[in-house]
Amino acid sequence: GIARKLALAGYGVCAMDYPGFGLSDGLHGYIPSFDTLVDDVIEHYSKVKEKPEFCGLPSFLFGQSMGGAVALKMHLKQPSSWDGAVLLAPMCKIADDMYPPFILTQLLITLAKVLPQSKLVPERD
């Protein structure tokens, strides 16, 4: 992937799995609060940047898809903490022509509030 290519090019690369994603624990794909997720990532990278081997080095955010939305929110919350950000297809907005009908959106919002940990998508047999 991209992280491996950057590391092979000599860049220091740090990455993390969000809870419920990748190899981490938690209900797969469940994010109770996007802002809490962003704050957790900020805390993680703040600790990484405090290590002596990283102090004083330029720090850039890189995010792809949902990671792009996280990186953007991190940069907005801490603009002076980062030297820049690279966003690859950040998940920031659903295109108007891709948005489901209003009634379906309202139904899904209600279901998410009533059954926040239920999976509402088909699963493989």
From TrEMBL:
<dbReference type="InterPro" id="IPR022742">
    <property type="entry name" value="Hydrolase_4"/>
</dbReference>
<dbReference type="Pfam" id="PF12146">
    <property type="entry name" value="Hydrolase_4"/>
</dbReference>
<protein>
    <recommendedName>
        <fullName>Serine aminopeptidase S33 domain-containing protein</fullName>
    </recommendedName>
</protein>
<dbReference type="InterPro" id="IPR051044">
    <property type="entry name" value="MAG_DAG_Lipase"/>
</dbReference>
<dbReference type="InterPro" id="IPR029058">
    <property type="entry name" value="AB_hydrolase_fold"/>
</dbReference>
<feature type="domain" description="Serine aminopeptidase S33">
    <location>
        <begin position="2"/>
        <end position="120"/>
    </location>
</feature>
<dbReference type="InterPro" id="IPR000073">
    <property type="entry name" value="AB_hydrolase_1"/>
</dbReference>
